C-alpha cells in the first residue's frame, strides 16, 4: 500500500494536470468501489470542477466546485492513470504487470475531463474505494486519523501525547496505527526507528523523553527525504509519471534482512512484529 511519500508524490503530479479541469462525466463499472450512494456520487462529481488535489494520510482528496470532496484510497493495488487527449499517460500507484494500455480489464472507474483527457482507476484486487463527502465535513470524516507528521503543527510534544495513550503496545505497532500518526506504514516506520536507534519491539512506556524527541526528528527527516526522492519503489509501485520511486536505493534497513548495517556492519535482522515484516539492527537499536 502506498504510504505518505508515495501518495504525496501522486498528489503533487496530478495537481498539475487536474486542477481547474471540468468533469464532464464519470463511468463506474464496479459500483462496489463506491462508498457513497450512487445517485449522490454522480450528482456531486459530474459537472463539477476540480479545484485542488491534496492528501490526508494515505488518501487523495479532490476538492470539487460542487461543495463536495472526492476521497480516493488506492489500498493495495489501486492505480490512477491520467491520459491526455493526445494519448500521453501519467500513472500513479501500483502498475499492472504486462498491462500498458487504458482502459483495460482492470479499469473500473473512468472520469472524462473538459480538455479531452481522462482519469482511469484500475484495481486488480478491488480493495480501493471512492467516496464523496461534503467539503465542510471532511475534517470530521477523517477525524480519527492522527496528526500529519510533516505538518508545522506536529511537534515532539504531539508525538509524546499520541504515544502516551498506548504505553503497553510496541512502538512499531503504535506507529503503524493511523490514529497515532497519519500516513506512516511499514517501510517508513522501520526506517524512522532505525534512524532514531530505537528497537521496534520496545514497549512505548519504556521510551524516555529524549528518545521520543529523537524519534520525532527521525520521522520528519525520513519522510522529507522520501518525498524528495518521489517515494519508494518496491513490487510494482510507480509514481504519477510512471517512474519508480528513488528512495528504495537509499533505504537504510527496510528489506535489508541479512545485509550489513550501514553503521556497524553487523547483519540486519528480520522479524515479525505487529503482524508485519520488521527490519532492525540488534546492535544499533536499543
Q: Would you kindly provide a brief summary of this structure?
A:
With 286 residues, the chain is α+β, with helices and mostly antiparallel strands. It has helices spanning 4-18, 38-45, 138-141, 156-164, 171-176, 186-195, 209-228; strands at residues 23-28, 50-56, 59-64, 68-73, 78-83, 89-94, 107-113, 118-123, 129-134, 237-238, 269-273, 276-280.
Tell me the number of structural domains: 2
Structural class: alpha+beta
* Terminal-residue CA separation: 28 Å
In the sheet with the most strands, the strands line up as 1-7-8-5-6-10
Radius of gyration: 20 Å
Low-confidence stretches: 233-241
Largest sheet: 6 strands, antiparallel
> What order do the SSEs take from the amino end to the carboxyl end, as H and E?
HEHEEEEEEEEHHHHHEEE
CATH class descriptor name of the largest domain:
Alpha Beta
State which percent range the strand residues make up: 15-25%
CATH topology tier name of the largest domain: N-terminal domain of MutM-like DNA repair proteins
Roughly what percent helix? 25-40%
Average of pLDDT: 92
- The CATH superfamily of the largest domain is MutM-like, N-terminal
Shape: globular
Can you count the helices?
Answer: 7
